[in-house]
């Protein structure tokens, strides 16, 4: 996966969100301090893929001055969730470590790094475990359920999001990019490679563990 591919996928996705009426393309900040990534590299069991590095160089949270000027909260970036800055990803990672327990060893996995959050217990994360068969894949950690794979890579996740917008599976409403349920669950799976997230239709409270 080339960095150009990730950048192009991100450009296509942000253009699609703008067509829906979302202001997120104008409110996202690029990473200014490249050294901030060193804190993520220092995490135990976390290996940053080139694709994830390219993503964070383009997406480092929101321009809060612009948000204030427009009297806006953080608009959702994707999957109905807000984009995390590099510092925000680090904080979410640290806060989620408590969820690794003997009773629920797969609810959250050490070596996964959040990139999106709904601020209510669920995140979208990238598998940063270099030895994992799904290294670089994108997962949702659903509050009360745990991790399930959405897409095989960030580029696939973004391109599927673009296609979902174009095909009418996602709408924009008051700052939120939201899936059209139940259509999204029932019909959008092929856009995301029929990943485990969509394989659970009718049993969304279950988990498919595939990263070991």
Which helices and strands, and how do they pair?
Blueprint: H1 3-20, H2 24-27, H3 37-41, H4 50-58, H5 64-69, E1 82-83, H6 86-96, E2 112-117, E3 123-127, E4 138-142, E5 146-151, H7 154-166, E6 170-173, E7 176-179, H8 183-187, H9 196-199
Antiparallel strand pairs: 1-2, 2-3, 3-4, 4-5, 6-7
Helix pairs in contact: 1-4, 1-7
Pfam families: SMI1_KNR4 (PF09346)
Protein name: Knr4/Smi1-like domain-containing protein
**The CATH top-level class label:** Alpha Beta
Poorly predicted runs are none
In round numbers, the mean pLDDT is 94
Q: What is the CA-CA span between the terminal residues?
A: 22 Å
Q: Shape from CA axes? A: globular
CATH topology: SMI1/KNR4-like
Walk me through this protein's architecture.
- The model has no long low-confidence stretch (mean pLDDT 94).
- The strands form two sheets. The chain has a five-stranded antiparallel β-sheet.
- Helix 1 packs across helix 4 (50-58) and helix 1 packs parallel to helix 7 (154-166).
- It has helices at residues 3-20, 24-27, 37-41, 50-58, 64-69, 86-96, 154-166, 183-187, 196-199; strands at 82-83, 112-117, 123-127, 138-142, 146-151, 170-173, 176-179.
- Helices cover 35% and strands 15% of the residues.
- It contains nine helices and seven strands; from the N terminus they run H-H-H-H-H-E-H-E-E-E-E-H-E-E-H-H.
- It is of the alpha+beta class and 212 residues long.
- It has one domain: SMI1/KNR4-like (3-Layer(aba) Sandwich), CATH 3.40.1580.
- The longest helix has 18 residues, at 3-20.
